[in-house]
Fold:
Amino acid sequence: MNNRSFPWADFLKKVAVIAVPVALQNLLTTTGSMIDTMMIASLGNTEVGAVGLCAQFSSLMFSGYWGFVGGGMLFFSQYWGAKDDDGINRSYGLTLTCMMAVGFLFCALATLCPGAVMRLYTDKQEIQAIGVEYLRIVGFSYPLMVLSMAMASLLRCTEQVRLPLYGSITAVATNIFLNWVLIFGHFGLPAMGVRGAALATLIAQCVNLIVVVALARAKGHPYLLAVSRHFRWDGALIRAYFRKCFPILCNEVLIGVGNMVINIVLGRQSTEAIAAIAVFRTLEGLVIGFFAGFSNAASVLVGTKVGAGELDTAYKRAWRLVYLCQGFIGLIGVLLIALHTPILTLMGMRGASFSIAFGLICIYAAASLIRMGNWTQNDTFRAAGDATYGTVLEIVFMWAMVLPCVWVTGMVLHLPTLLVFACCYVDEPIRYVLMQRHLFNGKWIKPVTPEGRAALAGWKPER
Structure:
């Protein structure tokens, strides 16, 4: 197979149809987060740092349920390719149940034990006190966030990517407006500060769900609202589901705990550094937003072809998606560096905080080029049925290389924040080489549908 025989025009069109709405949705969310940060920054660095650390707790929740998202999308996309309606409905019900259990657990931790959560992330009492106020309100939005992610995953895998986008547009607009009203106290309401930001997030999540459900109902989506068909599970489905999800779940949980350790180290830096990291995390969402578009494209464009038994097409699409993703991420990194001064100034960075934030952007712009390539490859493997290879690599390198480097540089040697942060990415080049070898040998294609398994017999990859 060579590039001349590959249908590039049709391929790029299909990528755009899936990736662009997802990227726009995440871009909207990131823009909303940036505006949130700008508003909160006017209250002070302490408030920015506190809300930023709370965001890291919600990222831990993300790691807790993302294993089920990854496993669910594997089944959704392959069953969609095989036109198996019952398989889609039942796997969605199982995915939703598992995800919501995680959402309610984190809701309970945030609303009932906020002090313990904040003490874990930082030793600075003034930041802890503000974070407690924020968590007690925003924690109620966690189950809503999880539910909206489950619905978005199903809609994207069934090629209805615009519905979650419309929900995000409405939710971000609501969040920005309510932030302005509630943080500063307009229209006769009291100025609530960070509590107002938390309440705005909660209300915006409610709006998001209402919009998506209403649009899905109006469009007559055959799966999202078919509640009576979601919970008809049998032993075979449950075993197959957890067999595929277990490696992804282990990956996300262990990586999430690893990231929590990293955030614990970073949370014990200076107040200026904590504020800079909080701003950086918001900008990082911009890069991840574009990555998510390619990730979803990989899951749908590769997974559906594997499920339908068209293995050559799946293979040909896979490695091209990886390089397209890296190209776009590289452009985003360059833009962030070029525009860092107005962006960081608008987000309230001054003096030491500004310098640290710019350093974080530069390090991340270089590292993300490889990092997002690794992530896209791993998501491609998962969509095709191989949930183990990338998982094992990521866990081993995180715990054997990254965490020791971060802990020693930050907690033992007390080196500057930027050096500690750079250690977060020391494993990426090594993993990239190993992931590339696995990508081109084609052993990651492991179908779950009868059509895919039949096609796998005797199949060999050709570039």
